[in-house]
Design a protein that fits this description.
With about 200 residues, the chain is of the alpha+beta class. The protein is built from three helices and eleven strands. It has two domains: about 5-70, Orthogonal Bundle (Arc Repressor Mutant, subunit A); about 75-195, Umud Fragment, subunit A (Ribbon). The strands form two sheets. Strands 3, 4, 5, 6, 7, 8, 9, 10 and 11 form a nine-stranded mixed beta sheet that branches. Helix 1 crosses helix 3 and helix 2 crosses helix 3 (about 40-55). The radius of gyration is 23 Å and the shape is elongated.
Length: about 200
């Protein structure tokens, strides 16, 4: 069997990368090498460079999975630090020990986002369960009705924000729990919850 023409191989590489991008799983150069049986990663890289030069792919510098389709939004995978646990119940002491990282598809810089592992059942009505990881955007300006992570004094909790003039209330999504009406001088909104992660099988 003769060798596949270079143009045909490049087209197959493009279709492979395109399909992976559309499925939200951008490939690495090594994955392309393995998928096509190239002898070296350099061969895969040359095909990618050719597709970028032809305008069929765009490349974000400094990222191993930084290829995207031209005109697509600048969404990239960032590693978000999980900084500890936050209660979704009554107030409890905030814990901010680094527990690991979760990969998130986002337009935001890594430092803008952080994750917290939830304890308690006060937000079950919003689909936030014990053990879930909430991803929090720290630079967002929360609006009435947003789910937020708030600190009251030295304690932190995840609740739905309700604004009544200048008064802020932290409401649960479980009728067993009571709303929290903090002293405004002790309240700090740490960020807005933008995503919830749940793992059905624990490591």
């Amino acid at each position: 069997m003769g060798r596949t023409p270079a143009g045909e191989t490049r087209e197959r590489v493009f279709r492979f990368v395109r399909d992976r991008l559309l499925s939200g799983r951008p490939p690495t150069v090594r994955e392309i090498q393995e998928a096509f049986g190239f002898r070296s990663a350099q061969t895969a890289q040359e095909h990618l460079d050719g597709l970028v030069e032809a305008g069929r792919l765009a490349k974000q510098a400094g990222r191993s999975r930084g290829y995207r389709l031209p005109g697509a939004s600048e969404i990239a995978t960032v590693l978000v630090p999980v900084l500890g646990r936050v209660p979704a119940g009554g107030l409890d002491a905030a814990v901010e020990d680094l527990e690991g990282y979760v990969p998130i598809e986002s337009r935001h810089a890594p430092g803008v986002l952080f994750g917290l592992k939830v304890r308690g059942e006060s937000m079950t009505g919003a689909g936030i369960l014990p053990g879930d990881v909430v991803v929090v955007r720290r630079d967002a300006r929360p609006a009435n009705g947003d789910i937020v992570v708030a600190r009251v004094g030295d304690d932190a909790t995840v609740k739905r924000l309700r604004l009544h003039g200048r008064r802020a209330e932290l409401h649960p999504e479980n009728p067993v729990f009571e709303p929290i009406v903090p002293d405004p001088r002790e309240l700090e909104i740490l960020g807005k919850v933008v995503e919830v992660r749940r793992y059905l099988e624990r490591p």
